[in-house]
Protein backbone atom coordinates (compact mmCIF):
# COMPACT_ATOMS: atom_id res chain seq x y z
CA UNK A 1 0.00 0.00 0.00
CA UNK A 2 2.29 3.24 -0.75
CA UNK A 3 7.43 3.07 2.76
CA UNK A 4 3.51 2.62 3.65
CA UNK A 5 3.16 1.92 -0.08
CA UNK A 6 6.83 1.33 -0.78
CA UNK A 7 6.58 -1.66 1.45
CA UNK A 8 3.26 -2.78 0.04
CA UNK A 9 1.15 -3.65 3.09
CA UNK A 10 2.31 -1.73 6.14
CA UNK A 11 -0.70 -1.94 8.40
CA UNK A 12 -1.57 1.12 10.47
CA UNK A 13 -2.31 0.55 14.14
CA UNK A 14 -5.75 1.45 15.43
CA UNK A 15 -4.73 4.01 18.02
CA UNK A 16 -6.90 4.70 21.03
CA UNK A 17 -8.55 8.15 20.75
CA UNK A 18 -7.19 10.82 23.07
CA UNK A 19 -8.73 14.25 23.43
CA UNK A 20 -6.10 16.95 23.67
CA UNK A 21 -6.85 19.32 26.58
CA UNK A 22 -5.33 22.37 24.89
CA UNK A 23 -7.32 21.99 21.67
CA UNK A 24 -11.05 22.12 20.96
CA UNK A 25 -12.48 19.60 23.43
CA UNK A 26 -15.03 18.44 20.86
CA UNK A 27 -12.25 17.26 18.52
CA UNK A 28 -9.48 14.73 19.02
CA UNK A 29 -6.32 14.51 16.97
CA UNK A 30 -6.77 10.87 15.98
CA UNK A 31 -10.10 11.75 14.36
CA UNK A 32 -8.48 14.68 12.55
CA UNK A 33 -5.72 12.43 11.23
CA UNK A 34 -8.18 9.72 10.23
CA UNK A 35 -10.47 12.08 8.36
CA UNK A 36 -7.64 14.05 6.78
CA UNK A 37 -8.35 17.45 8.36
CA UNK A 38 -4.65 18.23 8.31
CA UNK A 39 -4.77 21.98 9.01
CA UNK A 40 -6.98 21.45 12.07
CA UNK A 41 -4.73 18.64 13.27
CA UNK A 42 -1.62 20.78 12.88
CA UNK A 43 -3.15 23.59 14.93
CA UNK A 44 -4.29 21.22 17.68
CA UNK A 45 -1.01 19.34 17.88
CA UNK A 46 1.14 22.47 17.72
CA UNK A 47 -0.81 23.84 20.68
CA UNK A 48 -0.37 20.56 22.52
CA UNK A 49 3.41 20.36 22.17
CA UNK A 50 3.77 24.03 23.09
CA UNK A 51 1.80 23.42 26.28
CA UNK A 52 3.30 19.99 26.94
CA UNK A 53 6.72 19.64 25.29
CA UNK A 54 7.16 16.17 26.83
CA UNK A 55 4.13 14.67 25.07
CA UNK A 56 5.63 11.82 23.08
CA UNK A 57 2.17 10.90 21.75
CA UNK A 58 1.67 14.39 20.31
CA UNK A 59 5.04 14.23 18.54
CA UNK A 60 4.11 10.82 17.14
CA UNK A 61 0.86 12.24 15.80
CA UNK A 62 2.75 15.16 14.28
CA UNK A 63 5.06 12.65 12.60
CA UNK A 64 2.04 10.82 11.16
CA UNK A 65 0.50 14.12 10.04
CA UNK A 66 3.65 15.22 8.21
CA UNK A 67 3.84 11.69 6.77
CA UNK A 68 0.37 12.19 5.28
CA UNK A 69 1.47 15.58 3.91
CA UNK A 70 4.59 13.98 2.37
CA UNK A 71 6.88 16.31 4.33
CA UNK A 72 9.47 13.64 5.01
CA UNK A 73 12.04 15.80 6.85
CA UNK A 74 9.44 17.03 9.33
CA UNK A 75 7.96 13.54 9.73
CA UNK A 76 11.39 12.17 10.56
CA UNK A 77 12.15 14.97 13.02
CA UNK A 78 8.86 14.56 14.89
CA UNK A 79 9.25 10.76 14.98
CA UNK A 80 12.73 11.20 16.47
CA UNK A 81 11.30 13.43 19.19
CA UNK A 82 8.64 10.88 20.11
CA UNK A 83 11.23 8.10 20.40
CA UNK A 84 13.57 10.29 22.44
CA UNK A 85 10.76 10.91 24.91
CA UNK A 86 9.52 7.28 25.04
CA UNK A 87 12.38 5.05 23.87
CA UNK A 88 10.58 1.83 24.80
CA UNK A 89 7.43 2.48 22.77
CA UNK A 90 7.25 -0.07 19.94
CA UNK A 91 4.85 1.93 17.80
CA UNK A 92 6.98 5.08 17.99
CA UNK A 93 10.03 3.16 16.73
CA UNK A 94 7.88 1.69 13.97
CA UNK A 95 6.82 5.14 12.79
CA UNK A 96 10.40 6.38 12.97
CA UNK A 97 11.33 3.51 10.65
CA UNK A 98 8.52 4.41 8.26
CA UNK A 99 9.50 8.09 8.19
CA UNK A 100 13.14 7.20 7.57
CA UNK A 101 12.05 4.95 4.71
CA UNK A 102 10.11 7.65 2.92
CA UNK A 103 12.93 10.13 3.50
CA UNK A 104 15.28 7.58 1.92
CA UNK A 105 13.14 7.47 -1.23
CA UNK A 106 13.56 11.22 -1.67
CA UNK A 107 17.32 11.23 -0.98
CA UNK A 108 20.46 10.69 -3.04
CA UNK A 109 21.78 7.10 -3.06
CA UNK A 110 24.51 7.71 -0.47
CA UNK A 111 22.08 9.22 2.03
CA UNK A 112 19.42 6.61 1.17
CA UNK A 113 21.71 3.72 2.10
CA UNK A 114 22.29 5.19 5.56
CA UNK A 115 18.59 5.78 6.04
CA UNK A 116 17.80 2.23 4.92
CA UNK A 117 19.99 0.87 7.69
CA UNK A 118 18.07 3.07 10.08
CA UNK A 119 14.74 1.72 8.80
CA UNK A 120 16.05 -1.80 9.44
CA UNK A 121 17.19 -0.93 12.95
CA UNK A 122 13.97 0.83 13.92
CA UNK A 123 11.70 -1.95 12.67
CA UNK A 124 13.80 -4.55 14.47
CA UNK A 125 13.66 -2.44 17.63
CA UNK A 126 9.87 -2.11 17.34
CA UNK A 127 9.51 -5.91 17.15
CA UNK A 128 11.98 -6.48 19.98
CA UNK A 129 10.00 -4.13 22.24
CA UNK A 130 6.64 -5.75 21.45
CA UNK A 131 6.52 -9.11 19.76
CA UNK A 132 2.73 -8.84 19.53
CA UNK A 133 2.95 -5.73 17.33
CA UNK A 134 2.02 -7.60 14.17
CA UNK A 135 2.08 -4.50 11.97
CA UNK A 136 5.70 -3.90 13.04
CA UNK A 137 6.46 -7.51 12.15
CA UNK A 138 4.82 -6.93 8.77
CA UNK A 139 6.93 -3.80 8.22
CA UNK A 140 10.07 -5.69 9.16
CA UNK A 141 9.16 -8.59 6.89
CA UNK A 142 8.64 -6.21 3.96
CA UNK A 143 12.04 -4.71 4.66
CA UNK A 144 13.64 -8.15 4.63
CA UNK A 145 11.87 -8.90 1.33
CA UNK A 146 12.72 -5.65 -0.46
CA UNK A 147 16.18 -4.68 0.84
CA UNK A 148 19.47 -5.71 -0.71
CA UNK A 149 21.35 -8.36 1.25
CA UNK A 150 24.12 -5.91 2.19
CA UNK A 151 21.45 -3.73 3.80
CA UNK A 152 19.96 -6.59 5.78
CA UNK A 153 17.55 -8.09 3.25
CA UNK A 154 16.86 -11.74 3.99
CA UNK A 155 13.92 -13.77 2.62
CA UNK A 156 14.34 -16.46 5.27
CA UNK A 157 14.01 -13.86 8.02
CA UNK A 158 10.84 -12.62 6.32
CA UNK A 159 9.45 -16.16 6.50
CA UNK A 160 10.24 -16.23 10.22
CA UNK A 161 8.20 -13.06 10.66
CA UNK A 162 5.30 -14.75 8.86
CA UNK A 163 5.58 -17.69 11.26
CA UNK A 164 5.48 -15.30 14.23
CA UNK A 165 2.45 -13.46 12.84
CA UNK A 166 0.49 -16.61 11.97
CA UNK A 167 -0.94 -17.21 15.45
CA UNK A 168 -2.27 -13.64 15.60
CA UNK A 169 -3.29 -13.05 11.98
CA UNK A 170 -3.20 -16.02 9.57
CA UNK A 171 -4.20 -13.87 6.59
CA UNK A 172 -1.32 -11.46 7.15
CA UNK A 173 1.06 -14.41 7.51
CA UNK A 174 -0.11 -15.78 4.16
CA UNK A 175 0.32 -12.34 2.61
CA UNK A 176 3.92 -12.11 3.85
CA UNK A 177 4.63 -15.58 2.47
CA UNK A 178 3.09 -14.53 -0.84
CA UNK A 179 5.44 -11.56 -1.04
CA UNK A 180 8.43 -13.82 -0.35
CA UNK A 181 7.37 -16.25 -3.09
CA UNK A 182 6.79 -13.37 -5.49
CA UNK A 183 10.22 -11.89 -4.83
CA UNK A 184 11.90 -15.27 -5.25
CA UNK A 185 9.96 -15.96 -8.46
CA UNK A 186 8.92 -19.44 -7.38
CA UNK A 187 5.55 -19.40 -9.14
CA UNK A 188 3.73 -19.93 -5.83
CA UNK A 189 2.93 -16.31 -5.04
CA UNK A 190 -0.56 -16.21 -6.55
CA UNK A 191 -1.61 -19.28 -4.57
CA UNK A 192 -0.45 -17.61 -1.35
CA UNK A 193 -2.27 -14.37 -2.16
CA UNK A 194 -5.42 -16.43 -2.70
CA UNK A 195 -4.78 -18.17 0.61
CA UNK A 196 -4.59 -14.78 2.33
CA UNK A 197 -8.04 -13.98 0.94
CA UNK A 198 -9.41 -17.29 2.22
CA UNK A 199 -7.70 -16.93 5.62
CA UNK A 200 -9.24 -13.48 6.01
CA UNK A 201 -12.74 -14.77 5.34
CA UNK A 202 -12.90 -12.94 1.98
CA UNK A 203 -11.51 -9.54 2.91
CA UNK A 204 -11.50 -6.71 0.37
CA UNK A 205 -8.06 -5.71 1.61
CA UNK A 206 -6.47 -8.93 0.37
CA UNK A 207 -8.29 -8.79 -2.95
CA UNK A 208 -6.61 -5.42 -3.37
CA UNK A 209 -3.23 -6.90 -2.48
CA UNK A 210 -3.86 -9.56 -5.13
CA UNK A 211 -4.65 -6.74 -7.56
CA UNK A 212 -1.32 -5.09 -6.71
CA UNK A 213 0.39 -8.40 -7.41
CA UNK A 214 -1.30 -8.67 -10.81
CA UNK A 215 -0.28 -5.10 -11.58
CA UNK A 216 3.36 -5.90 -10.82
CA UNK A 217 3.06 -9.03 -12.99
CA UNK A 218 1.59 -7.03 -15.89
CA UNK A 219 -1.72 -8.95 -15.75
CA UNK A 220 -3.93 -5.91 -15.99
CA UNK A 221 -7.25 -7.61 -16.73
CA UNK A 222 -6.74 -9.94 -13.76
CA UNK A 223 -5.85 -6.85 -11.74
CA UNK A 224 -9.10 -5.16 -12.67
CA UNK A 225 -11.08 -8.33 -11.95
CA UNK A 226 -9.53 -8.52 -8.46
CA UNK A 227 -10.49 -4.90 -7.82
CA UNK A 228 -14.06 -5.70 -8.85
CA UNK A 229 -14.08 -8.70 -6.51
CA UNK A 230 -12.96 -6.42 -3.67
CA UNK A 231 -16.14 -4.39 -4.09
CA UNK A 232 -18.34 -7.40 -3.27
CA UNK A 233 -16.08 -9.05 -0.67
CA UNK A 234 -17.66 -10.31 2.54
CA UNK A 235 -15.44 -8.08 4.67
CA UNK A 236 -15.13 -4.59 3.32
CA UNK A 237 -13.55 -1.38 4.53
CA UNK A 238 -13.23 1.99 2.88
CA UNK A 239 -9.48 1.80 2.32
CA UNK A 240 -9.91 -0.91 -0.31
CA UNK A 241 -11.90 1.56 -2.42
CA UNK A 242 -9.16 4.15 -2.08
CA UNK A 243 -6.46 1.66 -3.04
CA UNK A 244 -8.49 0.21 -5.88
CA UNK A 245 -8.99 3.67 -7.35
CA UNK A 246 -5.28 4.40 -6.89
CA UNK A 247 -4.36 1.27 -8.88
CA UNK A 248 -6.79 2.11 -11.70
CA UNK A 249 -5.42 5.64 -11.90
CA UNK A 250 -1.81 4.48 -12.06
CA UNK A 251 -2.53 1.85 -14.72
CA UNK A 252 -4.85 4.02 -16.84
CA UNK A 253 -7.78 1.65 -16.46
CA UNK A 254 -11.48 2.32 -16.00
CA UNK A 255 -11.33 5.91 -14.78
CA UNK A 256 -15.14 6.21 -14.36
CA UNK A 257 -15.15 3.29 -11.90
CA UNK A 258 -12.18 4.77 -10.04
CA UNK A 259 -14.07 8.08 -9.72
CA UNK A 260 -17.11 6.28 -8.31
CA UNK A 261 -14.96 4.34 -5.85
CA UNK A 262 -13.34 7.50 -4.51
CA UNK A 263 -16.66 9.29 -4.22
CA UNK A 264 -18.08 6.33 -2.30
CA UNK A 265 -15.00 6.34 -0.08
CA UNK A 266 -15.31 10.05 0.68
CA UNK A 267 -19.04 9.83 1.37
CA UNK A 268 -18.71 6.92 3.79
CA UNK A 269 -17.69 6.67 7.43
CA UNK A 270 -14.60 4.51 6.88
CA UNK A 271 -12.09 7.12 5.74
CA UNK A 272 -8.68 5.94 6.91
CA UNK A 273 -5.55 7.65 8.18
CA UNK A 274 -3.70 5.74 5.44
CA UNK A 275 -5.93 7.38 2.81
CA UNK A 276 -6.83 10.80 4.26
CA UNK A 277 -9.61 12.77 2.63
CA UNK A 278 -7.28 15.43 1.23
CA UNK A 279 -5.28 12.75 -0.60
CA UNK A 280 -8.49 11.13 -1.86
CA UNK A 281 -9.62 14.53 -3.20
CA UNK A 282 -6.27 14.91 -4.95
CA UNK A 283 -6.59 11.47 -6.58
CA UNK A 284 -10.15 12.29 -7.62
CA UNK A 285 -8.92 15.53 -9.18
CA UNK A 286 -6.28 13.63 -11.13
CA UNK A 287 -8.86 11.20 -12.49
CA UNK A 288 -11.19 14.02 -13.54
CA UNK A 289 -8.32 15.93 -15.12
CA UNK A 290 -7.27 12.88 -17.15
CA UNK A 291 -10.85 12.66 -18.42
CA UNK A 292 -10.64 16.27 -19.61
CA UNK A 293 -12.81 17.73 -16.86
CA UNK A 294 -10.37 20.40 -15.71
CA UNK A 295 -12.97 22.61 -14.04
CA UNK A 296 -14.28 19.87 -11.72
CA UNK A 297 -10.70 18.65 -11.17
CA UNK A 298 -9.80 22.14 -9.96
CA UNK A 299 -12.71 21.98 -7.51
CA UNK A 300 -11.31 18.75 -6.06
CA UNK A 301 -7.81 20.20 -5.73
CA UNK A 302 -9.30 23.20 -3.91
CA UNK A 303 -11.25 20.86 -1.63
CA UNK A 304 -8.01 19.02 -0.88
CA UNK A 305 -6.22 22.25 -0.02
CA UNK A 306 -9.11 23.39 2.17
CA UNK A 307 -8.29 20.40 4.37
CA UNK A 308 -4.50 20.44 3.95
CA UNK A 309 -3.13 23.76 2.73
CA UNK A 310 0.45 22.42 2.92
CA UNK A 311 -0.15 19.45 0.59
CA UNK A 312 2.11 20.37 -2.32
CA UNK A 313 0.77 17.90 -4.91
CA UNK A 314 -2.71 19.50 -4.76
CA UNK A 315 -1.25 22.98 -4.83
CA UNK A 316 0.87 22.18 -7.89
CA UNK A 317 -2.05 20.45 -9.62
CA UNK A 318 -4.37 23.40 -9.03
CA UNK A 319 -1.77 25.76 -10.50
CA UNK A 320 -1.48 23.49 -13.54
CA UNK A 321 -5.20 23.25 -14.32
CA UNK A 322 -5.75 26.95 -13.59
CA UNK A 323 -3.32 28.15 -16.24
Descriptive tags:
323 residues, 17 helices, mainly alpha, 71% helix
Structural class: mainly alpha
Number of DSSP strands? Answer: 0
Query: Average pLDDT, to the nearest integer?
Result: 91
> How would you sum up the major sheet?
none
Portion in beta strands: under 5%
How far apart are the termini? Answer: 33 Å
Helix content: over 70%
Return Rg in Å. 19 Å
Low-confidence stretches: 1-27
Shape: globular
Helix/strand order: HHHHHHHHHHHHHHHHH
In DSSP terms, counting alpha (H) and pi (I) runs of 4 or more, how many helices? Answer: 17
Summed up:
This protein is mainly α and 323 residues long.
Can you characterise this structure?
The chain has helices spanning 29-35, 38-51, 56-69, 72-85, 90-105, 109-129, 134-146, 155-166, 170-184, 189-199, 204-217, 220-231, 238-251, 255-267, 277-290, 294-307, 312-321. Helix 3 (56-69) packs antiparallel against helix 4 (72-85). It is built from 17 helices and no strands. Residues 1-27 have low confidence and may be disordered. It has 323 residues and is mainly α. It starts with 28 loop residues before the first helix and ends with a helix.
